[in-house]
Amino acid sequence: MATVLVLFDSRASLVRELARAVCEGIALVPGADAHSRDVEEARPDELLRCDALVLGSANWTGVTGRLKTWLDESGDLWESGELAGKPGAAFAAGWSPHGGLEATLLQLVHLILGHGMLFLGLPWSERMRRSGSYYGATAVAVLTNDDREQARALGARVAALAVRLAS
Amino acid sequence: MATVLVLFDSRASLVRELARAVCEGIALVPGADAHSRDVEEARPDELLRCDALVLGSANWTGVTGRLKTWLDESGDLWESGELAGKPGAAFAAGWSPHGGLEATLLQLVHLILGHGMLFLGLPWSERMRRSGSYYGATAVAVLTNDDREQARALGARVAALAVRLAS
Amino acid sequence: MATVLVLFDSRASLVRELARAVCEGIALVPGADAHSRDVEEARPDELLRCDALVLGSANWTGVTGRLKTWLDESGDLWESGELAGKPGAAFAAGWSPHGGLEATLLQLVHLILGHGMLFLGLPWSERMRRSGSYYGATAVAVLTNDDREQARALGARVAALAVRLAS
Amino acid sequence: MATVLVLFDSRASLVRELARAVCEGIALVPGADAHSRDVEEARPDELLRCDALVLGSANWTGVTGRLKTWLDESGDLWESGELAGKPGAAFAAGWSPHGGLEATLLQLVHLILGHGMLFLGLPWSERMRRSGSYYGATAVAVLTNDDREQARALGARVAALAVRLAS
């Protein structure tokens, strides 16, 4: 089984809802297993043992300090390279469509690449006219059906690659 | 008079509409004068003589090659520093709310800062829940009233600073 | 007097050394006063009362969680707008020349713009071939004389604008 | 055979030298074939037929207008999705260590993700203290041995994934 860790800061309930949709997408892929963890309960060894990582944050003018601090204190995996070469992805939620939502995702992209991981976002589809980004899944104010579908697509995408690379 | 050059690539008509709203905002400021130029007709000496610069682009997976090429060929102002210390701002329009609209604005931010200019975006307001970014004015698919108001606010903001610094 | 708050996370001593050089630059400007604060000792009301803000961080795959958490907990100034329209700038230090140093600065740029502030970096100069960025002052591994001169130039630049806008 | 297209704007000879080193890395991987193309001679169908893409640009305050224009005019692959799911990577060269080199790489990251591709940079290694980025391979002013080794590592990394995914 390939384990996909979905690690997020749940301060905003929207982020938790997006995380749930990402996990639904992961569950669609045979051989993949979703581990969903709020940073308040996550342990560093879960980061160490995953086959893929999906990071989620509220847009608090970028990634929340709480999520970043958790990652800062999770060990020196960026240096030791345990996550290098594994797939990574991102999602973010906030109150405004262009008020830093992509910027928050971009900070998550940076954290994924800082571990030497492969980054996957969402490819273009007609649904991106309403939700989602090349950098990952999104939601603004409320979770729409389009948001949920994009988050599922992202979960399935990262899980399929994790299964393939873990075999 | 402080001259604010609004320089944009008009391939998408939305960009032209946003440019018009930015100019309306500039016109509200006593002592400021808006010069609106499509890159197809703009001349490098207009860049040289402005007191402030507002750059606009369609979201073509980032700034259009046409706008970037125009700037590449407009001389070495980044090196000679004619624009350094003057105010700059940005606007962008596209088909999807998070499909690179902020990324396009961020590339414009980079071009402004690459000239040593001061960068101004939009401050938070309730309207940012519907339109606009810390990086500048926005529009998606059609120009809404909120888009127009944010673009006017941006034009007025950059013009007011240009007048103040030119005095 | 215009007060320029230099707020940084000192985990890396290089950041503290850069902060000192920024303050030296501020002190060169008549009418400007530098307040240098490590996030471990800074109080939110100092943020509220400043006329300009210079943020500094170590490159810990982006801004440190400690600095971001301090800002997250400093109140809702981004919402109430007390800092809007005031000048802001950034500096960063780390161990590698392109291993996220600009990315860290870019996250500081985002925090400055998220408050609706004006952002100033460094304009091009021959010295940028050795140190500094359009996004702010830099240092890698050790503080060189070029790093110090760029940090001073940045401090003087933001202080001069703060004095001008405060008058 | 998995074909890795190395597409770059050669205006700066450093970019051409980095491209050569990337190709050397690709050639080290059994089953991978490097196609090196300057944008002046590249044809859109080469983009369509590749199994992986490595984009390179000089730092001209971001990606050169010439490279961006070529991509703008290469068809609507971002929309039709021919490149989606394939590996992509980036390299950049310029005159200053932090004067937009990462920003240029970031624009290439965006172009790769805008096609729905997987993005790979360089993982941390001691060599990143001297050259290279989480976003790709780098060179400043002259090509050093470290630059060459990082570019080779990047080429080998993207080629190995391309071979694996093409099988």
Tell me what you see in this structure.
4 copies of one chain form a homotetramer. Chain A has 167 residues and is α/β, with parallel strands linked by helices. Chain A has one domain: Rossmann fold (3-Layer(aba) Sandwich). The first copy, chain A, is 41% helix and 21% strand. Chain A contains 6 helices and 6 strands. Chain A has helices spanning 13-27, 44-49, 65-72, 77-80, 101-114, 145-166; strands at residues 2-8, 32-38, 52-58, 87-94, 118-119, 137-140. In chain A, strands 1, 2, 3, 4, 5 and 6 form a 6-stranded parallel beta sheet that branches. In chain A, strand 4, helix 5 (101-114) and strand 5 form a beta-alpha-beta unit. In chain A, helix 1 crosses helix 6. The model of chain A has no long low-confidence stretch (mean pLDDT 96). Chains in contact: A-B, A-C, A-D, B-C, B-D, C-D. Chain A binds chain D through residues 78-79, 81, 84-85, 87, 109-110, 113-116, 118-124, 134-135, 161, 164-165, and chain D through 78-79, 81, 84-85, 87, 109-110, 113-116, 118-124, 134-135, 161, 164-165.
Largest interface: A-D, 24 and 24 residues
Strand content of chain A: 15-25%
Please provide the count of β strands of chain A.
6
Shape annotation of chain A: globular
Question: The biggest beta sheet of chain A, please?
Answer: 6 strands, parallel
CATH class of chain A: Alpha Beta
Rg from alpha-carbon coordinates of chain A: 14 Å
CATH architecture of chain A: 3-Layer(aba) Sandwich
Task: Report the oligomer.
Answer: homotetramer
Low-pLDDT stretches of chain A are none
> Average pLDDT across residues of chain A?
96
In CATH, the topology of chain A is named: Rossmann fold
Overall number of structural domains of chain A:
1
CATH superfamily of chain A: Flavodoxin domain
Report how far apart the termini of chain A are: 9 Å
